[in-house]
Amino acid sequence: MARLLLADCLLHSGSCDATAKLWDWRMPAVPAITFQGHDSDINSVSFCPSGEAFVTGSDDSTCHFFDTRCLLCINKFKSERTICGITSVCSSASGRLLFCGMDNFNCYCSQHSVSCHHLPSQWP
Is residue 83 classed exposed, middle or buried when 0-12, 13-18 and 19+ CB atoms within 10 A define those classes? Predict the structure, then answer.
């Protein structure tokens, strides 16, 4: 018998209303949960390899790290020197690094954790 993991049933989306939504494709009529926290459009969303978290990148120059186990934003990444939007986000295969592509053609890399107790950090 095949076992369907919860992470295999989830889809995520980001939108112009500054929210990220987690969807269960088995019940697609309404999102399972809506995550808030960004101040502008979300341009990119990416699941971490474990499937237990996802990252969003926004025009507000921040990345938010959401944990799907505790249903919270557990980390926020921002550079005070960067005022352009984030156009793409991706997590490394190990899930320890976050890569962010920016409107100004730069790419940032930051360490993050899937722990719900991780404190916010900033890019260099």
Answer: exposed
Pairing of strands 86-91, 10-14: unpaired
Please check whether residue 14 is in contact with residue 24, taking contact to mean a CB–CB distance below 8 angstroms.
no
| Euclidean distance between CA atoms 23 and 15, whole angstroms | 13
Question: Tell me: the pLDDT tens digits for 25-80?
Answer: 888 788 888 889 899 999 999 888 877 888 999 999 989 988 888 888 888 888 77
Return the amino acid letter for 29.
A
117 token code pair = 């107790």
The CA distance from 68 to 74, in Å, is: 10
**Model pLDDT, residue 112:** 59
Q: Say if residues 24 and 3 touch (Cβ distance below 8 Å).
A: no
